[in-house]
Amino acid sequence: MGGQMQIPRMTVITLGVADLARSTGFYREIFSTPPVTENAGVTFIPLPGVWLSLYPLDKLAEDIGEEVVLPAPNTFRGYTLAYNARSKAEIVSIFARAAEAGAHIAKVPQETFWGGFSGYFADPDGHYWEVAWGPMFEFTEYGDLQFKA
């Protein structure tokens, strides 16, 4: 057993979506990042540190071997995806783009009990995102989030 063990790293988050074209357009607006859609009916959006993958929900369920059970629209599913912003102004800008792209704004950005600033929106398929800024965080030169020293 030679060598040092590498810390596992999340590389892709796949969201099951009802309408691939709609969701691809939504995330193009939110991230201002051109997606890669040339691979067998799946959209990849390369983001620093992790890629976001969009895949038709029925095909994802089929691949897993499970039935699709859809919750009611805008129903909290027990998890959130998160983006840590570099400023409060960046959060406000992201929420403006999200609203324009058709997001359900669940909680407008506001001061938090923990000293930060954050809000929540849901994409067209009901996946909730938190966009947050906190004075205890900073970013490395590579864009990785860390606690301030």
What would a concise description of this structure say?
The chain is an alpha+beta fold and about 150 residues long. The protein is built from 3 helices and 10 strands; from the N terminus they run E-H-E-E-E-H-E-H-E-E-E-E-E. The chain is about 20% helix and about 35% strand.
Strand order in the largest sheet:
1-4-3-2
Number of strands: 10
Helix tally equals 3
Largest sheet: 4 strands, mixed
Strand content: 35-45%
CATH architecture of the largest domain: Roll
Bin the helical content.
Answer: 10-25%
Q: What would you call the structural class?
A: alpha+beta
Number of domains: 2
Q: What overall form do the CA principal axes indicate?
A: globular
CATH C-level name of the largest domain: Alpha Beta
Q: Detail the poorly predicted runs.
A: none
Mean pLDDT: 91
SSE pattern: EHEEEHEHEEEEE
Distance between the termini: 34 Å
Description:
This protein is α+β, with helices and mostly antiparallel strands. The protein has 2 domains: about 5-65, 2,3-Dihydroxybiphenyl 1,2-Dioxygenase, domain 1, CATH 3.10.180.10; about 70-149, Roll (2,3-Dihydroxybiphenyl 1,2-Dioxygenase, domain 1). The chain is built from 3 helices and 10 strands. It has helices at about 20-30, 55-65, 90-100, and strands at about 10-15, 35-40, 40-45, 50-55, 80-85, 105-110, 115-120, 130-135, 135-140, 145. The strands form 3 sheets. The chain has a 4-stranded mixed sheet with strand order 1-4-3-2. Helix 1 (about 20-30) runs antiparallel to helix 3 (about 90-100). The longest helix is centred in the middle third of the chain and has 13 residues, at about 90-100. The chain is globular and about 45 Å long. The mean pLDDT is about 90.
